[in-house]
Amino acid sequence: MSTAPLVYITGASSGIGQALALRYYRAGYRLALVARREGELRQWAEREGLEASRVAVYGADVRDIASITGAGRACIEAQGLPDVVIANAGISIGIDTAIYDDLEMMRTVYETNNIGMAATFQPFVTPMRARRSGTLVGIASVAGIRGLPGHAAYCSSKAATISYCESLRGELRDVGVKVVTIAPGYVETPLTRRNRYPMPFLMKADAFAERAFRTISAGHSYRVIPWQMALVAKLLRALPNAVFDLALAGRPRKQRQGE
Asked: Closest Cα partner for 97 from 89, 106, 88?
């Protein structure tokens, strides 16, 4: 088995996941890539010219606990225990609490963004603890700092992601396993292209991946990317509710599914 380091990435079939996969590949890592669209992911790897000996693709749905934990165990068996695990898979869909059917959409967001993250990490926690090394990375969002109109499901799920990773970091800090929380601002991906409101400091996915790679390698526990959005995040935290509500007055709501 190769001695090159191994990174495991969910949601690798597009956007941030693909950009992170390429950045780690160029750094000499072996890749364990996970997505529901397994065929598309394999085709992308071939188009990019990635060496087959350094890349393994696992088809799994993070909403299905048996599926995603099974992918993690399959990775360990086939490629060994990863050095870095990045729980990147996530969805962003607007909801309206007044609409009954949107409650099921909220469940879908939580199952993907929260339960899916925990299930992604689960197969690796015990063996990393035994090895006394490894890094678990949770991709959160600046949207987890304050709630935005029409964005209740996504914002609350990402707030939960930040708290979850903080809790996990405390549980693992004495056994050599790092937990890194990355909160992206706006990154140009299929997830953000349909947004109908301004997206300040919009980044290309490869630029985000470069900064995320450096953050993870340095072992920072929490980082907002880009740094300009970190300043915005601090300001948002500090704003009194009345001022925050006034600042968002008239802001377009996040689209619901099908809009």
From this structure: 106
Distance CA 17, CA 58 (A): 14
pLDDT digits (tens, 9 = 90+) for 4-39: 999 999 999 888 999 999 999 999 999 999 999 898
Active-site entry in 24, 58, 154, 164:
154
Burial category of 52 from C-beta neighbours within 10 Å (exposed 0-12, middle 13-18, buried 19 and up): exposed
Whether the bond into 226 is cis, omega within 30 of 0: yes
Summarised one tens digit per residue, pLDDT across range 182-237 is 999 888 866 655 655 566 667 899 999 999 999 999 999 999 998 888 888 788 77
Whether 8 is a known active-site residue: answer: no
Closest CA to 31 of 83, 73, 92: 83
Residues contacting 176, CB < 8 A, separation 6+:
129, 131, 132, 133, 134
